[in-house]
Amino acid sequence: MTKYIGILTAGGDSPGLNAAIRGIGKAALELGMQVVGFRDGFRGLMENRTIRLDRSALSGILTVGGTILGTSRDKPHRMPIGGKLLDMTDVMVDNYHKHHLDVLVCLGGGGTQKNAFRLMQKGINIITLPKTIDNDVAMTDVTFGFDTALGIATEAIDRLHSTAHSHHRIIVVEVMGHKTGWLTLGAGLAGGADVILIPEIPYDVEKVAEAIRWRSREGKGFSIVAVAEGAMSKKDASVIGAAEEKIEKAEDKAAGKKAKTELKKMESQYVGNTLRLSNQLEELTGLESRVTILGHVQRGGTPSAADRLLATRLGTACTDLINQGTYGVMIAIRGESTEPMPLKDVVGKRKHVPMDHPWIASARYVGTSLGD
Ligand code: F6P
Predict the structure, then answer these.
(1) From ligand 1's centre to the CA of 67, what distance in Å?
(2) Whether this model's pTM surpasses 0.90
(3) Minimal-distance CA residue to ligand 1 atom 11
(4) Domain holding 359: CATH number?
(5) 191 CB less than 6 Å from ligand 1?
(6) Is residue 335's pLDDT more than 90?
(7) Which of 31, 42, 214, 337 is the most buried (most CB within 10 A)?
(8) Does 137 share its domain with 224?
């Protein structure tokens, strides 16, 4: 019996998505399966906007950045329609059946794993692949997109060195990552940043300034500070921590909603704020400081060789599992092999940088300040 596969890409785009689509699709066609892509994430599944993924659609996309399917951050149970947020999961399930699908493959980060799981709970077959430049999906060693972004952010830090050195300046470079510091820590370490600030380690701005002043005393009149989007000072972290606690302790749905809105407001006020950090460092050190926000350049362009390999391995492993009839899993990289992890065990978790991670130890050994 011919198997029918649906594929969608959701959440922020990530280099390697097309390589993964190609890996799934080409292997599926080899096995006599049929593949259809849904455009723009879960929105395309709801609106039944499709593209046939035949040999010609899958050709020439391995090296292309972004996603040929398009993506969105829409959530199946909270679709913005006519000014309201509506639960459209049933419509999506109907469209799955209209295409006689055997499985829907969802390529995405933590949010996508959750959304795919919601559809799975409605009785359809799901497989997910872990993609995000943040590298923060639980139960996999690594996600595709991370290596490419790591290369881009590292090159940016390399390039900032010469201009910071020439002008005897501090350059504060903001790297993506709202909740986790994998990219900032990796690029900071590889690029030789003098200070690395990540969400997992709340910083003390006075300690950061002292690390920079120490460098000046040692005759190094410039410093590179790599800061994650979501890095927070110790003071701000305690305010945010208290707001998070309010959500956990909320007695009913309304109180929970109110606490969540308060937290969002606070996050926009306290989290990140790289410009404020740069101004504080100018004041505390007497050195001139500049800010560089790397932003979406980190997600753009052709995937690295490592990401192409990873995405192709995960994609072909996915089709292999479909062929065996294994569903309800995320395909992870664990050590040298690809492994199916039960999706229910993946959702709702985030992979933070553990404090005993070798990158943290190495950063401290080479004298990099982590701001604590
Ligand atoms: O989830 C990946 C990511 O690139 C984060 O690092 C970043 O904080 C976020 O997406 C940006 O999202 P958007 O592209 O929706 O602005």
Answers:
(1) 15
(2) yes
(3) 12
(4) 3.40.50.460
(5) no
(6) yes
(7) 42
(8) no
